[in-house]
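My current task is to audit a protein record that another person submitted. Thanks in advance; the entry in question is below:
***
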Amino acid sequence: MYEYIKGSVVYADPTQAVVETSGIGYHIMISLQTYSAIHTQKDILLWLHLLVKEDAHLLYGFATRDEREIFRLLISVSGVGPNTARMILSAMSNEEIRDALITSDVVRIKSIKGIGTKTAERMIIELKDKMMKVGLESSPSGSSLQPVSETGTEAAAALQQLGFQRSAVEKVLSRLQKENPAYSLEELIRHSLKLL
């Protein structure tokens, strides 16, 4: 129904954004990958996926059409809902997801929270051939992004919104920030997702 939205970023954090266009603010669920691409921009274009549930209409936004295509493929697998798909897109880049599925890397896929061995195997069986047809656009590199102030606090809030326990989040973030105080918000969240 909706293809994309083009407008001004009113608010963005690693899990959601509010984009204003024609005087209306749209609440859009995003992945860390998309946040990395848009958080320094004022005017953006997000490719949309509308999910209609009994009690809500939810918009999911993506910085590239490839990311949206991968999201749609992921949610087509039984046992993978939109939040799990968003978690996968936050933990790995489009290229990493594609490579893990094509090479049948069960260990890498099941390292993501919410993905067990059976689900990882089902994803590989159902998506391996389809992933070979996805031609990936070049995506912006996360390494060139400037670190965000109060990084640890923002990372903790984002991880808790994704469903992780506060105590576990704080423990992992503390460890990561001791290892490298220069981690950007995106790097902190990405590394945390691998450890939680």
In short: Residues 146-195 form a domain with the Helicase, Ruva Protein; domain 3 fold (CATH 1.10.8.10). The beta strands are 4-13, 16-21, 24-29, 43-52, 57-62.
